[in-house]
Amino acid sequence: MIRRVSVPALFPPPTYSHASVVEAGTRLAFLAGAVPLDADGQLVGAGDPVRQAEQVLANLGEQLRAVGSDLGHVVATDVYVVSSETAVLSAVWEVVEASGLSAGPHSSTLVGVACLGYSGQLVEITATAVVPDEGTRA
Question: Which of 29, 31, 73, 122 fits 67 for a cystine, CB–CB 3.0-4.6 Å?
């Protein structure tokens, strides 16, 4: 059984869902890439990868709440940053670490890329999370 979720608090995705929850003994949510757009679809933090990372993590938190999970239950992420400079990637990773997302610690890949899907977008994070039973949520 797969339940696909589009989060009402986020900008509606054009052709994908914000998350998918799969029932297989342990429920897992496979989240689409969180992007630095506000609920109206406006880019947050133009030219600022750190500010964009903060917005991406806020949006990721919304996606997780919508499926009954949270940052502490994330088991894997892919962090994409438009940059070839390790200092920029490190600055974004510091935001990820400060968010509580790495409290697992979870598995993660940090990747510098040439471009992302929205004009001006510098950061995107995909995630897989456990969806805990009500009594075990952090």
Answer: 29
Instruction: State yes or no: pLDDT of 53 exceeds 80.
Output: yes
Q: Is 17 exposed, middle or buried (0-12, 13-18, 19+ CB in 10 A)?
A: middle
Cis peptide before 12 (omega within 30 of 0): no
Report the distance separating Cα 122 and Cα 44, nearest Å. Answer: 10
d(CA 134, CA 126) in angstroms, rounded, equals: 24
Give residue 68's identity as a one-letter amino acid code.
G
On whether the CB atoms of residues 63 and 77 are closer than 8 A, the answer is: no
**How far is 60 from 21, CA to CA, in rounded Å?**
15
pLDDT score for 138: 52
